Amino acid sequence: MSHVSSVSNNAASPALPAGFRVSVAPMMEWTDRHCRSFHRLLSRQAWLYTEMVTAQAIAHGDLDHLLGRGEEGERVVLQLGGNDPQLLARAAREGVAYGYDEINLNCGCPSDRVREGAFGACLMAEPQRVADCVAAMQAVVPVPVTVKHRIGIDRHEDYAFVYRFVETVAAAGCRRFIVHARNAWLDGLDPKANREIPPLRYAVVHRLAQDFSHCAFELNGGLQDLAMGLAVATDPAHAASVPSAKVGAPSSTPAVPAMAGAPVAVPAVDPVHLESLTALAAARRPLQPLTGLMYGRKAYHEPWLLAGVDAWLAAHAEVDEAFVSGLRGVIDEPPSAVTRASVASSAAALPEGNAALTRAAVVDALVGYLERGAAQGVELRHLARHVLGLYHGQPAARIWRRQLSDPQALARNDPQWLRTVCAQVEAEAARQAERLAGREG
Predict the structure, then answer these.
(1) What does the alpha-carbon distance between residue 10 and residue 240 come to, in Å, rounded to a whole number?
(2) What CATH code is carried by the domain that includes residue 172?
(3) Beta bridge partners of 294
(4) In terms of domains, do 97 and 222 share one?
(5) What number of CA atoms fall less than 13 Å from residue 403's CA on the CB side?
(6) Backbone phi and psi for residue 382, each to the nearest 5 degrees, phi listed first
(7) Residue 419 annotated as binding?
(8) Catalytic residue among 109, 122, 133, 215, which?
(9) Which residues bear the site annotation Interacts with tRNA (predicted)?
(10) Around Cβ 325, how many Cβ atoms within 10 Å?
(11) How far is CA 303 from CA 326, 349, 362, 390, in A?
C-alpha cells in the first residue's frame, strides 16, 4: 500500500495550514495559572489550557481561586466539566469575564470521580446532551466553544460511534474538536493506564477531518516531539503506523480487563481508515489537513519542547495573520513586506520561544514573576514543581531538581534563590563540558 501524504514534497510549500495550533493539554493539578505563566515564557504562540474546572464548582466556589489568571496573556482556554447546559452556560460566562479566549468542554476524562459525576468521557455516549451543552454555552458567550473527546469509549471501537458523536455536536455549532486518539476504557483502567494502554489510532482523527471538512481537528495523544507532530499531522499513512505497528498487524498490547473483567483486544492501527484516506488520494481529492497538535505530559515534564514551538510554526505553517499583526511592532518593515521568512528571522526580537532563549533567561523571568506576584500571595512553592523539568536532559539537571524539591529551601520563599540554583547548575554544566573537552583532546 502506497503512503499517502497531504503535503507537497516542495520544501518551499508550508506543510501546515495558517492558524495551525500547538497547545498544552489541560492536566489536573498541573496546568494552573503558575504553570501557564511559566509555559508562556517559553512560547508566545502555544495555546494553554486550564485544569478542568467543574461548572458546579464555579456556581458555588471562589471565582478568583478557580478562574484567576497569572501572566499567561492570550491564547488561553478554560476547560469546563459538567453535563448541565444551564450550569455550563453560567460557568462559560464567568470564564469570559476572566478573559479566557475559548471555552472547552471535557468529554474525554475517564476518571472514576468524573464518571460518577456523569461527565467527562462518559458523555460520548450522550452526544445530544453534549450538543445541548455546547449550544447553551454558545448562546451566552462571544468566544468559541470547543470539545475535547476520545475516539471511543469501552468497546465502541467502530468509526460510526465517534462519527455520530462529532456529527451531532457539530450540528449544534461546535467547529473545533480536540481528539485524544485513544479509546477511554471506563471499567478496569485508571486514568494513567487510559493514557498508555488503549492503542493510539491517529488515522481516525484524519478520517474525521475528511468527513467534517467544515470543522477543525486537533490531535492529542502520545506525541513525543515537534518532528513527530509534523509527521503525524501531515501524513495519514505515517499516522496510521505510529508508534511502531504495521498496518493490519495484531496489537502487541496485552489483553486488559476493560469491561467487567472481560479481556479486550484492540487493533494497534486502523487499516480501514488508512485505506479510505488512500482512496481519497487516488481519486485526487485533496486531504483536509489537521489544524493542531496537543502535547500533554511530555510538555509538562520536558517543557523546553515549548521553546521551539514559535520558530517551528514559522518554519512549517502558513503565516497566521494574527501572529504577523503582533510582530509588526518588532519587525522593521512595512506590513506588506512581512513574510514567513521575516516572521522566522524576527524570533530573536521576541523574549519568548526562540533559538536565543536560554534557561538562565527564563529563570530571570520567573524571579520577576514571583516578585510581582508576592503581594497577591504568590510563593516560590506554587511555581517550583512546575519548573522541575526546565533542565531536563541537560548536564547537572539533577542539581536543579534536587534543590527545587527541598521543602526547607522552598519555605524560605526567596525568589532570588532561583538565580543561585541556576548559577550552580550552569557552573557544573560548564565544568562537565571542560572535562569532556579535555578527554577528547
Answers:
(1) 23
(2) 3.20.20.70
(3) 23, 220
(4) yes
(5) 19
(6) -70, -25
(7) no
(8) 109
(9) 106, 192, 195, 398, 401
(10) 11
(11) 24, 21, 11, 6
Report the distance separating Cα 420 and Cα 426, nearest Å.
Answer: 10
- The answer on whether 221 is annotated among ligand-binding residues is yes
Helices 397-404 & 417-440, crossing angle to 10 degrees? 160
Average pLDDT estimate for 322-339? 36
Active site residue 107: no
191-197: long-range contacts at Cβ-Cβ below 8 A with a sequence spacing of 24 or more? 191/109, 191/110, 191/111, 193/256, 194/110, 195/221, 195/296, 195/297, 197/253, 197/256
User: Mean of the pLDDT values across residues 123-134?
Assistant: 97
28 annotated to bind ligand: yes
pLDDT for res 329: 34
| Dihedral over alpha carbons 372, 374, 379, 382 (to 10 degrees) | -50
The residue ranges of DSSP E strands in 108-230, in sequence order, are 145-153, 176-184, 216-220
Provide the residue range defining the domain that includes 385. Answer: 359-440
Q: How far is CA 340 from CA 148, 229, 322, 422, in A?
A: 31, 20, 13, 35
> Per the structure, how many domains does the chain have?
2
- Do 238 and 375 have their domain in common? no
220 known member of a binding site: yes
228 is in an annotated binding site: no
pTM of the full structure: 0.83
